[in-house]
Amino acid sequence: MRESPSPAAPPRPRSCLLYSPQFSIYQYGPSHPLKNERLALTFRLMEAYGLLHLEGAEVKEPRWAEEADLVLFHHPEYLQALQVAEAGISFPSAPAYGLGTPDDPIFPGVYSWSLLVTGASLSAAEAVEEGGFDFAFNMAGGLHHAHAGRAAGFCYLNDPAVMIHSLLGRGRRVAYLDLDAHHGDGVQEAFYDTDQVLTISLHESGDTLFPGTGFPYEMGWGKGMGYSVNLPFCPGTDDEIYLWAFEEVVPPLLGSFAPDVLVTQLGIDAHRSDPLSNLSLTLQGFGKAVTRVRGVAGKWIALGGGGYNLSNVPRAWTLVWAIMNDRELDPALPQEFLEAARSSGFTEEQLWDPPGSEPRCSNTAALRYAQEQVEFIKRNLFPIHGLA
Length: 388
Fold this sequence. Notes:
388 residues, Arginase, Chain A, 35% helix
């Protein structure tokens, strides 16, 4: 009697990394917390770990966005203002568009920078839609605070919103999951009235952090009622609480919505050492959340986002690329990377965080707060999605 042949192993997912050396050319200014050298450092760390020449993975130069792409979300008059700001010189109407503030300075090439980042996110979508890739990662993207007619929160063009609009134009249903410490307000604004996009944002409470929004009662309106999901956290929330709440809310909603494409914003400013937020995640906790995302994703587009500690960003986003490609990393960072990175202010020797650092509020208070938010979501939003 012949033995039945063993079932063939499923094909390894194909992944695409969008990267340009020009990402690091544009600078917000020497005192600004967003340092674009974090992107070059991340690419160097990926290279040092041997992650740029993997089977089934490719690194691609992104295209630049065009105005026809941008008007899918942004107002034409705002785009004209950004074009004027390109020279790096202020002008009388700049404040009306959120330009020239400490958060959103006018610097030479500000419009070009924004076109490149947005083009990279569009290239990620095209890689998944047309290029035969299952996953794509644009570490420069995730600038989720820009509004249709003004800059905000270090963000000039809202590349996630523009990209998701392009996917909607292809007839896709999209889920957007935002893990940045700051609420993804611009993306929520873009899709607040549609049931074709499910937005889920996990973030520090708007009571304690910019932009002051993202409360559970912000649930959408019209056809979009129930498709805007916000899960805020108390300052000091640690891995255990964060991952419990994530598991209670995110996989059930994604499973019910069943998106054609999952878009994630993977800011690492929820890390316990980030200078601009008050959450207490470790890199280990971040990695567990990303691993869980990979487990539920079909087509997956990952974007970067916040991250203002130069030692955290390269480790976190290198980990994202490794998770995408089913690779485990040596906890000891490659020596050749460390030698080059220290001059940029990189201080860590290990991939994983050392133990220590107590949360900034009691676990009891943080847990109670998270339980209240989860209960609200389950009571008010789960029934809309057919969840008990």
